């Protein structure tokens, strides 16, 4: 595939995405969203983040699964506790990243295979 073909495909995909979103805004922008639709849409961001994070936790290490050497599992549990208690996305992300780095370092220092 040539570079020009790749750029044309990228631009067409971007234009198509833009037009699909614009059509929804143009058609429904001046109307109120029904409560029956608005209520379940509140859970979409949490579902998307879960769908991204959970496979990274389970399959992120050298050996996939829930086992004692899975450092990402512990960091995910710490992040889940922070999310539950603080209800803050930034605090959850920060706690998850810092705990992952610290646990990786601790596992390396003490010779636990991670």
What features would you describe in this structure?
The chain has five helices and no strands. The protein is mainly α. The chain folds into two domains: 1-31; 35-114, no CATH class. The radius of gyration is 21 Å and the shape is flat.
Brief description of this entry?
By secondary structure, the chain is an all-alpha fold. It has helices at about 5-30, 35-40, 45-60, 70-85, 90-110.
Q: How many strands, which pairing sense, and closed or not: the largest β-sheet?
A: none
Shape: flat
Low-confidence sequence ranges: none
Enumerate how many helices there are, as a single number.
Answer: 5
Question: What fraction of residues sit in β-strands?
Answer: under 5%
Q: What number is the mean pLDDT? A: 89
Number of strands: 0
- Give me the Rg, rounded: 21 Å
N-to-C SSE string, H for helix and E for strand: HHHHH
The total domain count is 2
- Structure classification: mainly alpha
Give the assembly state of these chains.
single chain
What is the end-to-end distance?
40 Å
The helix content is over 70%
Task: Lay out the secondary structure.
Elements: H1 3-28, H2 35-41, H3 44-59, H4 71-86, H5 89-109
Quick tags:
75% helix; 114 residues; 5 helices; 0% strand; mainly alpha
């Amino acid at each position: 595939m040539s570079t020009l073909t790749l750029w044309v495909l990228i631009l067409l995909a971007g234009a198509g995405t833009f037009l699909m979103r614009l059509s929804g805004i143009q058609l429904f922008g001046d109307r109120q969203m029904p409560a029956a639709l608005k209520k379940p849409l509140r859970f979409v961001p949490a579902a998307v983040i879960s769908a991204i994070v959970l496979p990274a936790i389970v399959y992120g290490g050298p050996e996939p699964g829930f086992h004692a050497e899975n450092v990402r599992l512990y960091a995910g549990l710490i992040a889940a506790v922070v999310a539950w208690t603080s209800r803050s996305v930034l605090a959850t992300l920060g706690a998850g990243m810092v705990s992952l780095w610290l646990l990786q370092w601790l596992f390396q220092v003490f010779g636990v295979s991670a």
